[in-house]
Predict the 3D structure of the following.
Amino acid sequence: MWAIYKKELKTYFLSPIGYISIGIFMLMYSIFFYATTITYGSVDMGNLYYATARYGLLLMVPLLTMRIFSEEKRNGTEQLLLTSPKSVTSIVLGKFFAAATVILITVIISIVYAIIVSFFGTVNVPTMLVTMLGFILVAMAAISIGMLISSLTENQVVAAIITIAILIAPWFLVELSNVFSAIDLMDKFMKFPYGLISISDVISLVSITVMCVLITIILIKRRKAVK
């Protein structure tokens, strides 16, 4: 897994994708920092992370995940990957954690906004840390969904569009069925900005992540068996 992780992480930063993703995300952070914190003279960082998670992840996650497996299939390198000595589990996990690392980098950089706020008031550090934890959990769940979709198609644009649709759909369809409520990532993030860790929400986000990763592993293993 470590070898795949390093390879994927290098791929992000040896191409414009990693820098563009981080740049877009930091732009979103800055916009929402001004809109939720500076404008209201607030020291509350919760709204910043909530708004960035709600809208920023819609751009960043598809950008990071659309190529994870789609590119391998399109370029014809998937067969080489599947016939390598590396296990399918290590391949999937390596790719997953590489994408998660890019988002983690942006979360670490975002601490600069807390430093700025600290010059004008007292930042509630425990609440901010809880919010960042929730943000990372939501991001990992979103990445797992994007990675699963990428494993189903060789068209990167299609993978990105479907990922965005799945992340947005629960916002509008949640009242129609509890199924949509179960996959509404932002609903499970609601309590974190208040410094509250809901065990049920943590379990739900982790479960979505694990389930999507496992399904991806199963799908890739089946393709490997056929090849």
Observations:
- The chain has one domain: 2-226.
- Residues 199-226 form the longest helix (28 residues).
